[in-house]
Amino acid sequence: MIEALFREIKEELDVNIDLNKTYYLKSYDVFQKKKKINLNFFMTTNWFGKVKNMENQKFRWITPNKLYEFKLLKTNEQFIKYLLQSIFPTNN
User: Fold this and answer.
1) pLDDT on residue 52
2) DSSP letter string, 3-60
3) How far apart are CA 68 and CA 85, in angstroms?
């Protein structure tokens, strides 16, 4: 799984993540069109190279409390809630 994460980040952002500073956060299953999909979430605090948009998608750096201001995949809602409550809690 870590090798796949490393490849995906390189393919989509053209950086190499520091595996010593990459942490597993959470996983869960979702169902779409009668298919079970296992989502896995990681966080890295260090990478090598300059982040580039390799997939021609819009992206920008934001603070975690701004996540709900964007239209994100419905399948990510459970993780966003976890992220804001457990990893980046605020007093708001």
Assistant:
1) 92
2) HHHHHHHHHHHS-EE-GGGEEEEEEEEEEETTEEEEEEEEEES-EES-----S-----
3) 13
Whether 46 maps to a domain, the answer reads yes
Give the total residue count for the chain.
92
Domain count, the chain: 1
**DSSP β-bridge partners for residue 16:** 48
User: Any idea what the CATH number is for the domain that residue 44 is in?
Assistant: 3.90.79.10
Let me know: does 51 contact 9? Beta carbons within 8 Å: no
Which structural domain range is residue 59 located in? 2-87
Residue 26 inside a domain? The answer is yes
H helices of the chain, where?
A: 2-13, 77-82
The 10s digit of each residue's pLDDT in 33-87 is 899 999 999 999 999 999 999 988 888 889 988 988 988 888 888 899 999 999 8
